[in-house]
Design a protein that fits this description.
Elements (H helix, E strand, L loop, with lengths): L25 H5 L7 E5 L3 H7 L5 E4 L3 H4 L11 H13 L5 E5 L9 H15 L3 E3 L7 H9 L4 E6 L5 H4 L9 H17 L3 E5 L3 H10 L4 E4 L7 E4 L1 H4 L16 H17 L15
Parallel strand pairs: 1-2, 1-8, 2-3, 3-4, 4-5, 5-6, 6-7, 7-8
Helix pairs in contact: 2-4, 4-5, 5-6, 6-8, 8-9
Amino acid sequence: MSTTFTIDTATSRATPTPAPMKRLTVPAVRARKGGEPLVMLTAYTVRMAQLMDPHCDMLLVGDSLGQVIYGLPSTLPVSVEMMCAHGAAVVRGSYHSLVVIDMPFGSYEASPEQAFATASRIMKETGAAAVKMEGGEAMAQTVSFLVARGIPVMGHVGLTPQAVNILGGHRVQGRDPAVAAKVLADTVAIDRAGAFAIVIEGVVEPIAIEATRAVSCPTIGIGASAECDGQVLVAEDMLGLFERTARFVKRYGAMADLVNEAAGAYAADVRSRAFPTPDQTYQPKD
């Protein structure tokens, strides 16, 4: 594994531990441009990482954990400490996927030097292989600075949640010609700066397709197009754990219903004293 902290399989619930395998690398991801689509999901915990890892090429420890895990109103309050703690857990729980960790708002925008300090801390404390940062042309110099110093960067253009106050909400990008031109310029700028992949979020499909064709690195769509080089979703949205989701989410499960039913059955058994039974208790030895 790529971190010095490992799971004690003798005592941890997070078992069984899968057989180690070769972890996907940044060059291998970049080489998938125009090939088999890349699969990426978010993960914030060891157990979710273990379950998602066999099916994914990349696991994203997104700053979306602010809303999904902590119930925050947006991604803006998320701290570097949060990203490091959850990032390390996901690295510990995975063997195959390339782990990418979001740089939270306010931790990289001031200067390339600030971005390097944050990114190097994240990579040291988690064992992750790459960081992700939002922004287009304005962040190109920072992307180049990090890549030149050995830090792989995934870009993020279009609907960038950390800029929600500038954008006026979570609005689809690219319907206006000027905004469409900006999305294209941002994507090209981040590609030329050396990003190994770029997330394109919440962009009208023709612009997402044009941006994908305009760059040499893979694009990862979320609310963009099936013609992107890969796709990403928040795992909890995909699993059906939340009632309210964006238009671009497809639910592949109904986990909220399962949790509701299981919790209700448990509560009923406790109240009727049907649980625990002798099978769940310890009796004196003869």
